[in-house]
Amino acid sequence: MRRLAGRVLAYVLLVVVAVIGFAPFVYLLIISTKRRIDIVAEVPPSLNFNVDQIVRNYSEVINSQGMLSFTGNSIIVVGISTLVALIIGVPAAYAFSRLRFRGRDAWASTVLSFRFMPPVAVAIPIFLMIRSIGFSNSYPGLIIPYVAFTLPLVIWIMIGFFDEVPRDIDDAALVDGCGRVEVLWRVLLPIVGSGIIVSAIFGAIFIWNEFLVALYIINSRSLQTVTLGAATLVSAQRPIDWNIAAAVGIVTLIPIFLFSLFIQRYVVRGITAGAVR
Fold this sequence. Notes:
- 79% of the residues lie in helices and 0% in strands.
- The chain is built from 14 helices and no strands.
């Protein structure tokens, strides 16, 4: 009976957490289907839906507000930034895991500490540096700082995955005549492939949601990312169309939500690897 009661309590708590977590998104979805006047007049909003109004709201978001263009910009920036971070971070993690050099542990901890630094603390210096090299209001101007922010996370996750692989595998490959680069490329990368996916996932999610650095660097609407484009709907100079703002929120959430569903099991794997480290 005690075990049964504990199991029931656990499921009840899970249901409560799920309801609390999903309630804001459900509310956002409901008001994205309403007229602006209905949102003000009906609190909470009714569950009576008008298909024409839904089509009108989302058509305005997709066609008039330019969310498809913003989404394309985000995909370009996220893709390139994550790829560059992996190209640099995976060999660095291999070196931290396998090679012995003075200050290795201290350097690894220092790299991780960079990830804890909030973007607001370095947003202005980053903007000044990007402007000084002529990359303001451009894709490279966003990609460079995003790689810098993502790199520590990639390195630390991959160190955990490399540490899980027995060193005997490296030694056997070295005895067979492989160099360190060949050991990494031919032997270890296929083994730690799930770790690379996990690193890419966490890096991509962070870059997709980042707002402050992009706000400083990008001033052209044609180059705005999803977060910047959504923020332009909230302005003190004009009334806020809450139904359109809610529709923008839903459109913004859909790609990352589908992405999260697809890679959920890899996220759990990454958390486990972090616990091992």
